[in-house]
Amino acid sequence: MKTVYSSFQDAVEEIHDHATLMVGGFGLVGIPENLILALVESKVKHLTVISNNCGVDDWGLGLLLKNKQIDKMIGSYVGENKEFERQVLAGELEVELTPQGTLAERIRAGGAGIPAFYTPAGVGTPIAEGKEVRTFDGKEYLLQTGLRADFSLIRAEKGDPFGNLTFNKTARNFNPMMAAAGKVTIAEVEHFVKAGELEADQVHTPGIYVQGLIEGQQEKRIERLTVAASTN
C-alpha cells in the first residue's frame, strides 16, 4: 500500500531547495496543478524543473516561474509564457532546450536505467555544441544523456491503494515516463478507487513506480481557446 496524503501541502513537504523535479503535462493538459500550487505556497526555491514547457503566465509551472522558484528549466517549448521569455533574456533563468522527441527519450531512458543514447536530432545545430557526435552507417548521431529527478509530480485520472494509475487520453503525455524516472513519484489523481477496481490491462503506470498519491479535483484550464467561425 502506498502513502495517501491528506493535503497537497503534506504531499510536497519533502521537496527541498535545489531539488530536481519532473513535472508531467503538455501545455496545461495533464499537469498536476494542485501539487504545483502547493509548491508555490511552500516557497521552495532554486529548483531545476524538467517538463515539456513551463505553463502559462498565470497557471501551472508559470506560477513557480513568476515566484522566482525555478533556477533552471529543461524542456522543449517556450510557448505562451512571456515571463519565461523575460527571465531568459534578463539572464535570470537557465534554459536547456531539447527537441521534444529527444526530451521524451531522455526521460524514458533515465527511468529504464539507460545512461545515454545516440539520436540524429540536433546534429549540426547549437544543441550539439559540446556533445559527442559519432557516425553509424554513414549518418551522424548525437549523444544525449538520460534524465532522472529527485521528485516526479504527475497527474492521473485514477489511482488505487497500490499506486497503479490510469491516464485520461492525451493527459497521458509525459506522465508515465516521468513516473519511472523520479526517485520519488507523487501522483495527483482525480479519482481514488478501491483495490482491484482497475483491470490489469487498464493500468498505464504500475504502482512500483509510485511512492505517494493524493486525490484532488482540477480546474483544467484551456491554454488557448480556439473556436470555429460561425457559418450563419
Automatic annotation (TrEMBL):
Record-level Gene Ontology MF annotations: transferase activity
Organism of provenance: Halobacillus salinarum
Name the record gives this protein: CoA transferase subunit A
Keywords: Transferase
InterPro entries, sorted: 3-oxoacid_CoA-transf_A, CoA_trans_fam_I, NagB/RpiA_transferase-like
